[in-house]
Amino acid sequence: MTLEANSTDRKTPHAVEETGKENHENLDGGHQSFTGGLGLCPSSAPGLILMELKRAKLNLTRTTNDLSDIRASVESYNKKIEKERISLEKTRERLTLNSSKISSLEKELNQTRQKLQVAKDADIKGGSDNPMDISRELQRLSSEAEQFKKMGEAAKSEVFRAMSDIEQTKSRIKTA
Prior knowledge:
Belongs to the WEB family. Residues 1-31 are annotated as: Disordered. By secondary structure, this protein is mainly alpha-helical. It contains 3 helices and no strands. The longest helix is centred in the middle third of the chain and has 81 residues, at 46-126.
């Protein structure tokens, strides 16, 4: 086809066919310039052009569908990435919280070690290095504490009985 065939005037299929014949004749005669035509090949028959257009349309449809699939995949991956980002943030928060708990527990452990060392030092001075002795001493102190509680409760009940006796005596004196 020539540049004239590309003009904005619409050509009928018959005119396109004639143009194609002219191009073919020009090529046969060696007078056709490649810069004046659309391509390096002579114009094809309208049926071939139609087939090429259908093939191009099919390829365009496939490409469009492929792009649509790619976009859907990208969107799906973006959602997965966002979920992972949220999960990562939660994990970071838990890690920070756990790190602070670890620090707190380490401080508490160090304090307990210091107290234990002080207790061991006191036991060494007291002459007792045996952990069983410490355990027995703790049991003895616990039982003493229980005894003191019982004695306190007994004393409390004695006080209540004495107060009750005093009240009864007062009321008898008043009635006598």
